[in-house]
Amino acid sequence: MLQGINLECIRGDRKLFSKVNFTLESGGLMQVQGPNGSGKTSLLRMLCGLSNPAAGEILWNGTSIRTRDNDYFAMLTYIGHLSGTKDDLTVIENLQISSALAGFEVDIEEARDALERIGMSGRDQLPVKVLSQGQRRRVALARLLVCKTTLWILDEPLVALDVAAVKLIQGFLEQHLQQGGMVIMTTHQEIDIQAKSIMQLQLA
Amino acid sequence: MWIIRRDLLLAMRRRSDVLTILFFFIIVVSLFPLSVGPEMNMLRTMAPGVVWVAALLASMLSLGRMFSNDYIDGTLEQMLVSPQSLSLLVLGKALAHWLVTGLPLVMMAPVLGIQYDLPLDALAVLTVTLLLGTPVLSLIGAIGAALTLGLRGGGVLVSLLVLPLYIPVLIFGAGAVEANMAGVAFDAHLSLIGAFLMVALVFAPWAAASSLRVSLE
Fold first, then answer.
1. H or E stretch including A123?
2. Residue B72's closest chain A neighbor by CA?
3. Do B73 and A103 lie within an 8 Å CB cutoff?
4. What is the tens place of the pLDDT at every residue in B137-164?
5. Nearest 5°: CA angle at A106, between A105 and A111?
6. In chain A, which residues have their Cβ closer than 8 Å to the Cβ of B69?
7. What is the dihedral angle through the alpha carbons of A24, A30, A34, A39, rounded to the nearest 10 degrees?
8. Is the pTM of this model over 0.95?
């Protein structure tokens, strides 16, 4: 269970948001909405521990994530605006290394399987620098399939993806939620996901 | 320790980056005998200092790339979110940095020392001091690189931050070789560089990790 209590974000001398409260239970999807510059990315980075909230507390199963002494970071996959892939490494090397970083060692077979499921089969030996934006995104998202984490925090995961890929990702999200996972995401696109609890968090 | 493997793999894919640092070191060291002239005694006395200063500059030159590439493509962000200890990751990256930039310098130094007519045992001492000292440069450099991450003009700033911290290593590194040539015991110098290395191994990854967290906030 992930809880945000009275979160506040200040950038420079501008208050982006304050008094943000939410509780995300297992199987729940939270969609963070708001116009450009309303602090969606800032909120997600806060939830990943990349920055500290100006006020308030983020609790994972009742303990604060600030001290990093619970299993929160082992349970978390964050995919942000930047793909987190190295241009000079091949698709499969990237996937293996990024999942090892998250604490999940995967062998070639598993990695290849995940790439196939995300529609990147036959391209696993290409260096990432020759891929298109959409393909890079797919490589980044393939990490969701190999890392067995509970909480997915996704910042605009559907950007640059084609219609087929968007459908594919929505399917993965649905499956993850059915298995008791949690998803926090921002997107400007309409999404069509069936889950037992869908929350909208509106940032002013 | 797969992070070391990753960084070495990346270095292999971009060999030119590694070679430019090594050639920079070779050229700087070679400029001095060419400009000062073939005065053997003078060359011998300045050799340790010149080689050490060149090693300092070469190591500093490559610091910019230690974290900035990872910062730009988002892999650094992933390191901060990962459940692994960030200090250990930084230690791994600093070791990889040393293997790629420091170790080639150490191996090249005896060859370059010949240009300065250094006696054999002085060459050996020079190599040993560099072997002990260059990892310290990578470790201290990691702090500077982490602090200046994402800043405009970070390259100049990192030299201002890091070069003063390199001074003790420089003094004792060059001092050991000079002591050896003067026929004095030099093991105290080596012990001190070894002590710097131990302190840097313990504190530098931790300090650099904290700086990274601040830089990425």
1. none
2. A82
3. no
4. 999 999 999 999 888 877 788 889 999 9
5. 150
6. 86
7. 50
8. no
